[in-house]
Amino acid sequence: MDSFRWILLGVGILLLVGVYLLYILEKRFPHWFGREVEGESENDDAITDEEVIYLNLQSRDGEIEGADLIRAMQKYDLTHGDMGIFHRLTEGSRQPLFSVANMVEPGNFDIETLSTMTTPGLTLFLRLPRTFDALHALDEMWATTRGLASELNADILDRNRQPFSSQKQQKMRDEVLEYMRQIALQQKVSEYR
Question: Residue 13 belongs to what domain range?
Answer without folding.
Answer: 2-26
